[in-house]
Amino acid sequence: MAANPPGQGFQNKNRVAILAELDKEKKRLIQSQSMNNPGASIPLSRPAVNKEFRDQAEQQHIAAQQKAALQHAHAHSSGFFITQDSSFGNLILPVLPRLDPES
Predict the structure, then answer these.
(1) Euclidean distance between CA atoms 29 and 32, whole angstroms
(2) pLDDT higher for 57 or 3?
(3) Do 7 and 13 contact (CB within 8 A), yes or no?
(4) How buried is residue 93: exposed, middle or buried, by Cβ count under 10 Å (0-12/13-18/19+)?
(5) 90 neighbors 83 (Cβ within 8 angstroms)
(6) Half-sphere exposure of 90 (CA within 13 A, CB side)
(7) Three-class SS state of 25
(8) Is the whole-model pTM more than 0.70?
């Protein structure tokens, strides 16, 4: 078996001492930061409830926009329109009537 180089034991002890010192410093900084900002670790709101509220508000906003766009289209156009989710972000879609081909 190969023997360890003569200075390797000292290097390992030195690394362990440096890592221990860094860990102590990190803990000290975290503790001093929490003392300076006592409320920093307390969440201000529940993210799940906040997200649900935002989603609901966004859906209501989109519904209101769709209604306004539909009313505008009916007032200013002779075509037919419907509200439907679109892959391209359109609020309303035109409806084209199917005509039977004349024989």
Answers:
(1) 5
(2) 57
(3) no
(4) middle
(5) no
(6) 12
(7) helix
(8) no
